[in-house]
Amino acid sequence: MSTANRTPIVAGNWKMNLNREEAVALARTVASGSKGMQSVERVIFPAAAHLDAVRYSLAEVGTGGVQLGAQNTWHEPNGAFTGEISNEMIKDLGCGWLLTGHSERRHVVGEADDLVNAKTRAGLEAGLHVVLCIGETLEQREAGQTDAVNERQLRAGLEGVPRDALSRLVIAYEPVWAIGTGKTATPDDAQNAHHAVRKVLEALFGQQPATDMRVLYGGSVKPNNAADLFAQPDIDGGLIGGASLKADSFLAICQAVL
Ligand code: PEP
Q1: For residue 46, what are the CA distances in angstroms to 16, 143, 155, 165, 173?
Q2: Residue whose CA is closest, atom 3 of ligand 1?
Q3: Which residue, among 224, 248, 251, 226, has the nearest Cα to 238 in the 3D structure?
Q4: Residue 233's CB: how many other CB atoms inside 10 A?
Q5: What is the reported pLDDT for 3?
């Protein structure tokens, strides 16, 4: 019988927001405000342009255990890829984490499953922790396709991922219709989707890896709804967009998982 022993994660996706001064100030406040919260992993994903400044600033004042991640990389190690950054480059900037498959990369930039897969594999091969984001659109939800879409994105996104990298893989279920809209899945709906996600992980990798893997919820998580979502048995924390841009709300969400 498999048992769950998963450390929760609260991750802040700052997207293309904040100037350098604001990013540094927010990172410092999050670091000092979450110092005692060792039982939840806290990760921030500033814009790539600010990673260096945030990293050096946190090195000065102390990270408080807050880890740094990048919102996107290219999957090749180097070469003629104008405008892109590599996994080694973000590691040089102090990042241990990478987001792949975020809905804005899929639906705004147009990244397809095979590119998401290449980025996920490359991030893991580079030794990073990778948060693979999946989730259905409103149209797909209304057509009753939530679990099927999640399964397709998981199977495609995880193709060829080696088992020895699974401890560095995290899944974020983020229904597209809930991201940045103020609408969120009910705790029951989110739990059902997470349970189905874990079943796909079990089919792909076996029971214990599926039991051990963290599956985050994302989509308009706020201090007032976080605790109910995080109380669900298959929800292991959250990927937070808008509410991660204010230290108070991000820290309140971290508290909600404790
Ligand atoms: C996100 O960008 O991953 C996200 C969940 O955003 P928000 O919390 O603003 O919905």
Answers
A1: 8, 35, 28, 24, 20
A2: 241
A3: 226
A4: 10
A5: 61
pTM here?
Answer: 0.97
- Angle at the Cα of 107 from the Cα atoms of 136 and 135, rounded to 5 degrees: 20
DSSP letters along 180-218, please?
Answer: TTS----HHHHHHHHHHHHHHHHHHH-HHHHHHS-EEEE
**Which is the catalytic residue, given 111, 136, 174, 194?**
174
H helix or E strand, kind and range, residue 11: strand 9-13
Backbone angles phi, psi at 133, to 5 degrees: -95, 140
Q: Which of 75, 102, 129, 194 is catalytic?
A: 102
Active site residue 111: no
- Which residues, in sequence order, are CB contacts of 129 under 8 Å at separation 6+? 69, 96, 97, 98, 168, 169, 170
**Closest among 173, 74, 66 to 126, alpha carbons compared:** 74
Q: How many CB atoms lie within 10 A of CB 32?
A: 16
Whose CA is closest to atom 7 on ligand 1? Answer: 241
What is the percent of the chain with per-residue pLDDT over 90, rounded to a whole number?
96
CA dihedral 231, 229, 9, 257 (to 10 degrees): -50
Q: Whose CA is nearest to atom 2 of ligand 1?
A: 241
The pLDDT tens digits for 4-56 are: 789 999 999 999 999 999 999 999 999 999 999 999 999 999 999 999 999 99
- The band of 258, judged by pLDDT with boundaries at 50, 70 and 90, is confident
SS3 for 139? helix
